[in-house]
Amino acid sequence: MRHLMRRTGFLVAxxxxxxxxxxxxxxxxxxxxxDAKSERILYAQDADRLWYPASLTKIMTAYVVxxxxxxxxxxxxxxxxxxxxxxxxxxxxxxxxxxxEISLELGLRxxxxxxxxxxxxxxxxxxxxxxxxFVSRMNATAKKLGMTRTHFVNxxxxxxxxxxxxxxxxxxxxxxxxxxFPEHAHYWATPYMRIGKRxxxxxxxxxxxxxxxxxxxxxxxxxxxxxxxxSATRGGRKxxxxxxxxxxxxxxxxxxxxxxxxxxxxxxxxxxxxxxTLASLPPSTNSNRLVSIRDEVRGWSCGNRxxxxxxxxxxxxxxxxxxxxxAAKQKPATAIPLPTLRN
Length: 343
Description:
Blueprint: H1 2-21, E1 31-35, E2 41-45, H2 57-70, E3 79-81, H3 84-87, E4 101-103, H4 104-114, H5 117-128, H6 131-144, H7 167-180, H8 185-188, E5 192-195, E6 198-201, H9 206-209, E7 213-221, E8 225-234, E9 237-246, H10 249-273, H11 305-330
Antiparallel strand pairs: 1-2, 1-9, 3-4, 5-6, 7-8, 8-9
């Protein structure tokens, strides 16, 4: 009888986990959710489909810089110089004039928190002498980490032919940077930074809205949509979610939050039902073509003004409805006057 009850409990839990998973399968783009310690896969979808990394490229840029720091090739107080090449990079950037200097430590914060494209070039030139030499080191590091389907062409993730990655490779990179450089974990968990009088905010809004969020990086170009590698720790357990190709920043954040919430809620049952790890997860199909999703992205800069306007109107309507509901709840009930009685 006890054995039957135990089996029934597992079946009920498995059904609950399956039903919970239905809430996070809204898209068909690359997605991964896994436990950082065991590398146990909790959810996977198109993990090996080629994708544009966008600013997730900067995770590898930071890894190479951290490695140079560890080897003593540079120091935190080393100076980064804004070159002509760096100054010409488009936003997101801090916009230093040519010849201006900042410390390497401030450069790392600008790279990770602000996602500054100009600073990525400054770091590359400082560490390796040229962007091209630095990118060669990025690709050599990717190969060493087992990122078999990743290739970098620049240090910041701006659009360029040949730059590609996968959700599985980004998961390997996230694990490696947490494992190899825990002393720098605070950079990924910082939601704000200051440069002079300017207060700059991280694009990773989960750091401000999701309990336990502690990293790691967002990325966006029109061809890739909105990407994120998001980590969170609760009760000593760290989970990492990779979400690629969302049509908007809001959708990206909601999907990553839903994945992480699902993972923490169902971890024990998921771990029991699924023994696959990052290494043993079977290769996904439909993975050999790098396809732009520009037409699906709701962004002014991507040429989808009509879609962006419609999304903005829908958001405004949603906010207005929420305000009206709150106002209705707070409004005191109106007293109904009693009829006057006459003798």
